Every structure is written in C-alpha cells, then in structure tokens.
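User: I'm writing a tutorial on reading structure tokens. Could you give me a worked example: one chain, its sequence, then its tokens, then a sentence or two explaining what the tokens reveal?
Assistant: Sure. Here is the example chain.
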Amino acid sequence: MCSSDLQPMKRASAWSAVSRRAVALMVRPAPERRARGWAAVASLVLVIGVFDYLSGIEISLAIFYLVPVALATGWFGLRSGLVVAAVCTLTRIGCDQLIVLPDPLPAHTLWNAGASFLIMTAVAWLLHTLLTLHRQLEGEFAERTSELHASVADRRRLEREIIEVSARERTAFGRELHDELGQHLVATALASQVLAQTLGAA
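And here are its predicted structure tokens:
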C-alpha cells in the first residue's frame, strides 16, 4: 500500500478521534457543579455576542451560537437548550439593535434572527434525541456486558463444580475398586492356599 493510499485512512482516523471526543464531551453527565456549567455556557454566549456586535450588522455570527446551545442541551437537557437558544436569539437582536441605534432594526434582521432561532431549536431537538439514543445504547451495552460477565462467571463456577464432582467420583471409584478388589484378591489367595494344601495332602 503506497503512502497516498494511507492519507485518507489517516484523515478518517483523525476525524473519528475528534468526533469521539466531541461525543464524549456532550454525552457525559452534567458537570458536578451545575453553576460552573451554566457559567461556561453564559460566558460563551457573552463572548459570541461581543464578537457579533463588533462584526457589525452585515456579518452574521449566528452559527457560533450553536455551540452554547449544544452544550446546554448535552449537559442539562432539551429545555435548557431551548432556553439558551432563546437567549442567543435575544442577544443577537440586542447586538444588532445597539449597532443601528437610534434607527429601528431592519425587518430582514428580525426575520434572520427568527430563522436562526428555529434552526437552533431544531439542532437542540436533534442533538437531544441523538444523545438520548446514545445513552440508551450505552446503558444496554453495559447491561449486556454485565450479563455476559455473569454468564462467564456461572460457566466457570459450573466447570469448577464438574471438575470437583468428577474428582470426587474418581476418588470414590478408586476407593471402592481398591476395597472390593482387595477383598477378592485376599479371598482368592486364601482359596488358592487351601486348594494347594488340599492337593498337597492328597
């Protein structure tokens, strides 16, 4: 395989690693301190809002608001994601209003803000659905894994019991064989001595 064939595989592997890290970030349970998680989400909204204000009304940074919406949905659930989507939309409208003051906002700006709110809502719902399915699959996987471990442990216990029973049976059989065969041999030896004495006397 030449090096040019390895490049797509390396890129796919790198993309897979990045996506695994992103899913792990979203799937893990809410931070132990909810306040810290909310502070991170609020800080992101604030930073994006500042850059949105600095970029002016002509350049839209609406796509960047998806990051805090996704984090809030992954960490705190769908309702929190929808609340953050509404806050992001209001932040965007407020930044645009500050830019055009004292004039009113153009109608297309409000239309764009409404459309971005619908997109953020749809993304939050899709992400919540995917994460719920992912958590269910992880739960089923953990349950099946524990069942498999229990099954393997039962099989090993049964194997040990079979080995112990067969060892006991072998020991008992050997003891019985020794006792019965020993008695027969002693009886045969006595009978042969008696027969030898009888033949010798005749």
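What the tokens reveal: The CA atoms of residues 70 and 123 lie 8 Å apart. Residues 107-201 form the longest helix (95 residues).
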